[in-house]
Amino acid sequence: MSIALPEAPSFGAPVNQHPCPELLSFLATRRSASAVTLAEPAPGDDDVAALIRLAARAPDHGKLAPWRFIVLRGEDKAAYAARLEALAQSRGDARAAAKLAKLKLPPMGIAVVSAPRAHEVPEWEQVLSAGAVCTGLLYGAQALGYGANWITDWYAYDDQAKAILGLSAGENVAGFIFIGTAKEPPMERERPDSVALTTVWKP
Ligand SMILES: Cc1cc2nc3c(=O)[nH]c(=O)nc-3n(C[C@H](O)[C@H](O)[C@H](O)COP(=O)(O)O)c2cc1C
């Protein structure tokens, strides 16, 4: 499937809000697929660009766009995984090497990099915006009919692994969104009791 996105509203144009029952139905039932079940077909370049365009509409205090995207696909993704595998093996860390299956098996992924700016908007809010971008990418890919999963794992946090990905000082991986076609449908997981998590403030 490919996306035929409407034009983005032009700057300053009134943006009409309207009910969207299909979106509500999607939100009520969407589910992430295990990364190791993801196979081809995966979104092509046009769909990836569209997904990123949608994700970049995330709420963003100060309009700082304190995040960026790194697309991982094809032979380049395999080379990235091989370098991480060599790093894990050089440390004799078989567990870390095994965890790379979630990176190696899906046909593609998009790293969302949190890149907070020095600004009066607190860094916390800039990092939250990166999380919102991850959610937008995940939901966008799922709405397109693909399986997708938000993964971090050790290579999101390890300094040498971050350097292999090309991160600068102060940047962090908010998430790898792996996307493909799920070989088996995900089963519903336990969900939190939203009522138990909610109180109404009273003076
Ligand atoms: C920031 C973040 C990092 C995650 N990292 C991992 C991970 O490294 N490995 C993993 O198996 N799941 C990880 N998960 C959880 C998966 O995304 C999980 O499949 C997801 O929570 C399923 O929820 P859903 O079906 O409601 O989308 C992570 C989730 C978040 C929000």
Fold-level CATH name? NADH Oxidase
Corresponding CATH superfamily: NADH Oxidase
What is the molecular shape?
globular
Bound small-molecule species? flavin mononucleotide
* Major beta sheet summary: 5 strands, antiparallel
User: Roughly how many Å is the radius of gyration?
Assistant: 18 Å
Instruction: Return the domain count.
Output: 1
Per CATH, which architecture? 3-Layer(aba) Sandwich
Beta strand count: 5
CATH class identity: Alpha Beta
Approximately what portion of the residues adopt beta-strand conformation? 15-25%
**Based on helices, strands and strand pairing, what is the structural class?**
alpha+beta
Please trace the helix and strand order, writing H or E for each element.
HEHEHHHEHEHE
Structural description of this entry:
It is a single chain. Helix 3 (74-90) packs antiparallel against helix 7 (159-165). The N and C termini lie far apart (52 Å). This protein is 37% helix and 16% strand. By secondary structure, the chain is an alpha+beta fold. Strands 1, 2, 3, 4 and 5 form a five-stranded antiparallel beta sheet that branches. The model has no long low-confidence stretch (mean pLDDT 97). It has a single domain (33-182), classed as NADH Oxidase, CATH 3.40.109. The structure holds flavin mononucleotide (FMN). The site of flavin mononucleotide (FMN) has 9 residues, from strand 4.
